[in-house]
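Please, structure for the following, as C-alpha cells.
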Amino acid sequence: MDQKDREILRILQRDASLSMTELADRCALSKTAVWRRVRELESQGVIRGRITVLDPEELGFGLMIFAFVRTSQHSDKWFARFERAVTSIPEILECHRTSGDIDYLLRVVAEDMRHYDEIYKRLIREVDFADISSTFVMETIKAGTELPI
C-alpha cells in the first residue's frame, strides 16, 4: 500500500458517497487508476464495505448501553448459542471478546429503558451467563469510524 492508497482511504473514510470522478479529482489521479486501486483495496479486504452513518437518536434509539458479560462456560456449544443470540438481536451493534475480568463487551442501542429490558430478557432467555452488568451512556464525547491512516 502506497501513499496514494492511503490518501484514497482517508478520503473515503470521510465520505464514501463520492463518485470515482470526484475521488480521482481529490487524489490527482485518473478515474481508471482510482477505480483500479479501490477494487484492489476491496479485494485485499482493506475496504470491507461502504456505509451511511445514521443518527440513532433521530431514529428513536435514545439509549446506548455497554453490557459487560461474564460467563463461567467456555465450551464450543455455549459459544455457538451465544453467537446465535447476539447476531439475532439487531439492537446489539457490536460484540467483542475481551481479556481480563470481562469475557464479552456488547454495544447496544434501545429506544428507552423498557426496550433495553426486553433486549436483556431475550438475551438471558437464550444463553446462560454468570453475570451481565450494564452501563448507560449519558453523553458521547467522541464517536467515529475513521482510522488514523
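The radius of gyration is 20 Å. Strands lie at 63-70, 92-97, 104-110, 131-136.
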